[in-house]
Design a protein that fits this description.
Blueprint lengths: L9 H8 L3 H13 L2 H12 L2 H26 L4 H26 L2 H18 L11 H22 L3 H4 L3 H11 L6 H6 L6
């Protein structure tokens, strides 16, 4: 069955707009109630402030850090290939949490801080996976994923005012220094070099 869009049904759209306000309000509440993300976004936009954003950010940052701690103790006895696989799955899960935070708050600054923190934590908690250039498919998948995450970080950073970029310069330099010896990252770093030079 063909999906109907209100924009294609001008008569229906006009009829809805001319409903009594009370009816429109009921419809609106019913529709909003079907979309959990919209409920979270509206709650943040209508009932929260800058202080709440800071609390949300700090809570998520601590939560991500705790998840890294737990994973390290569970995975350190595994073979390196398995660690690369588990870390990749884990980072995708964490990225989903950051995506939700970004969709709710619309804060690019908070999103960028969290994304950089996850990249740095992956390096800090699993330094042995970042010390040499592993040449196998598991490492390559992991490094390709991290390259994509860094490209997203650089894109967010590029859109920020130059004064705000300065706050991230040292963290970016630290990441670049770790990954620079890995060929996967070199073209990306050459493209965005102006962001930390």
């Amino acid at each position: 069955m063909e999906k109907l869009r209100l924009s294609q049904l001008t008569e229906l759209k006009e009829s809805i707009l001319h409903l009594p306000q009370k009816e429109k309000d009921k419809l609106l509440i019913r529709l909003i109630n079907k979309d959990q993300m919209l409920i979270k976004q509206l709650h943040f936009q209508l009932l929260e402030n800058e202080q709440d954003l800071m609390q949300r950010h700090l809570h998520l940052e601590e939560h991500l850090h705790d998840l890294f701690k737990k994973s390290t103790s569970r995975w350190n006895s595994k073979q390196y290939n398995t660690q690369f696989q588990l870390l990749l799955i884990f980072l995708r899960e964490l990225s989903g949490k950051i995506n939700e935070h970004a969709a709710i708050t619309k804060s690019k600054d908070s999103e960028l801080k969290l994304r950089i923190k996850v990249v740095k934590d992956a390096i800090a908690f699993f330094p042995h996976l970042h010390q040499e250039n592993y040449n196998n498919k598991y490492a390559q998948k992991y490094f390709d994923y991290q390259k994509g995450r860094l490209k997203l970080c650089f894109t967010l950073l590029q859109k920020m005012h130059e004064d705000l970029r300065y706050e991230f310069k040292e963290d970016i330099k630290d990441i670049v220094n770790i990954y620079m010896s890995i060929p996967t990252f070199q073209p990306l770093f050459a493209e965005y070099e102006c962001l930390w030079e």
